[in-house]
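Page 47, continued from p. 46.
Same chain as before, 414 aa.
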Amino acid sequence: MLLVGFAAFCAYLLRNGISAANTTIQQELHLDDEQMGKILAAFGTAYFICQVPGGLLGKVLGSRIGFTIVTAGCAIGNLWSTLVSSLSSLWIARFTMGIFQAGLTPISARIIKVWMPIKSRGMSSAVIAASMSIGSVVTVAFTGALLEEGMSWQTIFVGFSIVSFIWCVVFLWYFRNKPDSHPGIGNKELSLIQTGRDPNQTSDNFNWQQLLDVLKTPGLTGLCVQSFFRAAGYIFFVTWFFAFLEYKYGIDKKQAGLLTSLPLMAVVIGSLTGGYLVDFLYRRTGSRNISRSATAFITLLFSGLFTLGSAWPDSATGLSVMIAIGALFSGAGSPAAWAATVDVGDRNAEVAMGVMNMAGSLSGIVLPWLLGSWFKEIRQSDGDWNQIIYLHAAFYFCAAFCWLFVKPDKVVAT
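Result:
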């Protein structure tokens, strides 16, 4: 899982560097907030379109080749973005990154399904979710600090791509699609991995009936809708929160980077805590409804409350600390969503994850563009920046409500 976690780290290193470089790129390419919103939405558009195809890529080619392709492709798209000189060329580069990175989550779900025992899916999901946020923490903190020191955003982005290429070489050499194909896995480990499930439950063959089966899954609608709202909360941190702090409080890029990293680091802590909690509750109760749905509902409810409370502090630090506490609870609910989707997807876990993450990625299309337009209006009219916080809190409340309709004890009929 460390290799998979580092893939997630690399992906978000590439994906979210633009958040810290947002206003710098705007100045260099002469873009306004609304135009930048369209560029940020380009990634989300491709990410949305290619979620299910990304899952199928891992199913058809296998996780080893599929994962390598999506990581290398995203790194190449990131390199392309350093060569652009206009809105349209940057939009295409970001769109290309989204095409490839769309396969990350569904292929990760496949690896969890094949490699991890049922009782460890919560923590496995937490490692991946935490790694994503660690990548985001590193990219916003380092990019902000390096930009403040005078380094160009292009040089920073090239460095991030190099890290991803190195990972591709290591993963391709070491990883195997199935545990019984890996020379380092013995009979004891294989027995542990297969505990509680049919050893033939994961099929490498795809047919369209599998997708239809996934779409008929009880509870998948609730998982998809919660994914949209939960992802919308996170999308704010990795697109416009850095600029939000710059605009509202007039702070420099180094401080904005450090404060933006607070909620992202909180997501890491929350994800790991949530992963432990999901597995602990499942071992104690034997109920996926309790360990998945109840955990997600409660954590997202608290996330909404703390996020709403972040509108009252007067300082950038105070707001960031409160919103980070909300992000911690949001992160604690993330492993429950991953584990529940793997559960209900059963043999077609990667396809189910693709559908769920596809719904979540819709927020990556809508929110960056919406916030870009809204930021432009607030700056022009000297409006109330707390409107953004109220919307952010509403996302978490809506996500919590959706979990009332998710029953992960029911799986796809295959």
